[in-house]
């Protein structure tokens, strides 16, 4: 589990294309200080498993499913990425509950002089995003300030702009989005309940153990 509080900005130092996958090497002196084989590190919001640690850098393999859903498919040597180690049991929940399972990508649209930043939102994710709710953008836990049919806005403080990659984003850049997992569970449970109610209303029978 992650909380969306970025620990440091890392740098991609190597990208190797594999069959239906990619191998990345990332420089991150802080997150590698206690990291070992098998540990989880979120790279711009994507939970990845460490396969090697050496000299302040760590190596991860990115499977095709992740490449299709995230911006890591376009990552290149020299790119900056947000890094966060998995939250330990009993650790402080500074942001919100995140799995590091990216739901899709959005597009950075712009930022005004007050730090209000707007992103394009894929239609299939819009139902999970609500005003004053939580959303993760490139692994950063943020509060939704405004929501439309195809975009949302967040208010970024100067510290967030400084210590994450969001301060370096240009219009048109892809960003990773993870919606609130609680909303997805609620939807799943509600669908079954509504389906049962409709079935019973229409005269159906239901066997219960």
UniProtKB/TrEMBL annotation:
Documented EC number(s): 2.5.1.9
InterPro entries per the UniProt record, alphabetical: ATP_synth_asu-like_sf, Lumazine-bd, Lumazine-bd_dom, Riboflavin_synthase-like_b-brl
Residue stretches of each Lumazine-binding repeat: 1-96, 97-190
Pathway recorded for this protein: Cofactor biosynthesis; riboflavin biosynthesis; riboflavin from 2-hydroxy-3-oxobutyl phosphate and 5-amino-6-(D-ribitylamino)uracil: step 2/2
UniProt keyword annotations, A-Z: Repeat, Riboflavin biosynthesis, Transferase
Domain of life from the UniProt record: Bacteria
Enzyme class: transferase
Entry keyword Transferase: yes
Keyword hit for Transport: no
Molecular function terms from GO: riboflavin synthase activity
Signal peptide (UniProt feature, chain positions): none
Catalytic activity line of the entry: 2 6,7-dimethyl-8-(1-D-ribityl)lumazine + H(+) = 5-amino-6-(D-ribitylamino)uracil + riboflavin
Domain Lumazine-binding: from-to ranges: 1-96, 97-190
Function: Catalyzes the dismutation of two molecules of 6,7-dimethyl-8-ribityllumazine, resulting in the formation of riboflavin and 5-amino-6-(D-ribitylamino)uracil.
PANTHER family found in the cross-reference section: RIBOFLAVIN SYNTHASE (PTHR21098:SF12), RIBOFLAVIN SYNTHASE ALPHA CHAIN (PTHR21098)
Record-given protein name: Riboflavin synthase
Organism: Amycolatopsis melonis
């Amino acid at each position: 589990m992650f909380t969306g509080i970025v620990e440091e900005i890392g740098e991609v130092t190597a990208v190797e294309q594999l069959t239906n996958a990619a191998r990345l090497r990332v420089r991150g002196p802080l997150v590698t200080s206690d990291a070992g084989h098998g540990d989880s590190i979120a790279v711009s919001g994507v939970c990845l498993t460490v396969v090697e640690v050496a000299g302040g850098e760590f190596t991860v393999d990115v499977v095709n499913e992740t490449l299709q859903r995230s911006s890591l498919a376009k990552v290149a040597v020299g790119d900056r990425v947000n890094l966060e180690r998995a939250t330990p049991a009993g650790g402080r929940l500074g942001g919100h509950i995140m799995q590091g399972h990216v739901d899709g990508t959005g597009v950075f649209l712009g930022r005004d002089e007050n730090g209000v930043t707007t992103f394009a939102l894929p239609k299939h994710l819009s139902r999970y995003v609500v005003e004053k709710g939580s959303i993760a953008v490139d692994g950063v836990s943020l509060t939704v300030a405004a929501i439309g049919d195809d975009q949302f806005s967040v208010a970024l403080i100067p510290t967030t702009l400084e210590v994450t990659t969001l301060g370096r984003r240009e219009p048109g850049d892809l960003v990773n989005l993870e919606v609130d997992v609680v909303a997805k569970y609620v939807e799943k449970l509600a669908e079954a309940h509504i389906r049962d109610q409709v079935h019973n209303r229409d005269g159906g029978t239901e066997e219960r153990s």
